[in-house]
Amino acid sequence: MTERKNFSEDKHKEDIKFSIIIPAHNEEKYIGKCLESISKASMLFENQVEVIVVLNRCTDRTEEIAKSYKCITIKNNDKNLSKIRNAGVDIAKGEIIVTIDADTQVNDHVLSNVEKYLTTGKYIGGGVTGKFERMSLGIFVSTLLLIGPLLLKYGAISVGIFWCYKKDFKSINGFNEDMLMAEDADFARRLKDWGKKNGKKYGTIQNGMITSCRKFDKHGDWALLKRPKIILAYLKGTDQKYANEAYYENQDR
After folding, report:
1. Residues in the chain with pLDDT < 70?
2. Which of 4, 18, 31, 215 could be disulfide-bonded to 27 (CB atoms 3.0-4.6 Å)?
3. 6 CB-contact burial (10 Å; exposed 0-12 / middle 13-18 / buried 19+)
4. Cβ-count burial 120-129 (b if 16+ within 10 Å, e if not)
């Protein structure tokens, strides 16, 4: 069994390379696996990785689990993922920012690949592709129904996990706090555009993560086919009702 690697919790440490930001709203079922995967990916970067868990109105054991890994924890009560993630980046000490959701696991080589891409000087940052923890026809169709319209609106981008230098994150003002949904696609497009202005490409790390199917487990694998208004809400990006349903009022996680 791989020995757990706890993360750097020295808020004044100057040699932090990676700051990994995790927004967390009642994530006790998932965050342990997420942190364990980051721990394995951090093995080559001893004492150079800090993990910042932004606790968003948690009423479960999320904080306890995060602290058991010596993560840095802060609290934020906004029902706005952009504000939650930006709050984590604001206190980050690392030169490289990585954002990941609490129900996602990274492969062992993600951080190494991020460093490799960025140190070439050819990439502004980018995203990560991966797979769901399980697949079905319903999940496949539902995913296509969402990806298609978002592709038309935002262009060819990879989302999931984001990575870039903190200075570039700040140059594009981070995540758009006016958006409640699809803020990740918006961020990717703006990062890609910023890269073009600086003669750099938007990179994609292939097959770098596994994400949960919790929304499909709760609402059914054909959820988006049965409720097309959710797709419209993602395209609009500012619908508080659907944003609350999707992210901010799930107390049964």
Report:
1. 1-14, 250-253
2. 31
3. middle
4. eeebbbbbbe
Q: Which residue, chain included where needed, has tokens 């054991």?
A: 61
The span from the CA of 66 to the CA of 86, in Å, is 19
SS3 233: helix
pLDDT tens sequence across 16-63: 999 999 999 999 999 999 999 999 999 999 999 999 999 999 999 999
Strand boundaries in 119-252, DSSP class E: 123-132, 162-165, 201-211
Which secondary structure element, helix H or strand E, spans residue 52, and what is its range? strand 49-55
Q: Is 119 exposed, middle or buried (0-12, 13-18, 19+ CB in 10 A)?
A: exposed
Name the token pair of 177.
């706090």
According to DSSP, the residues that pair with 125 across neighbouring strands are: 164, 202
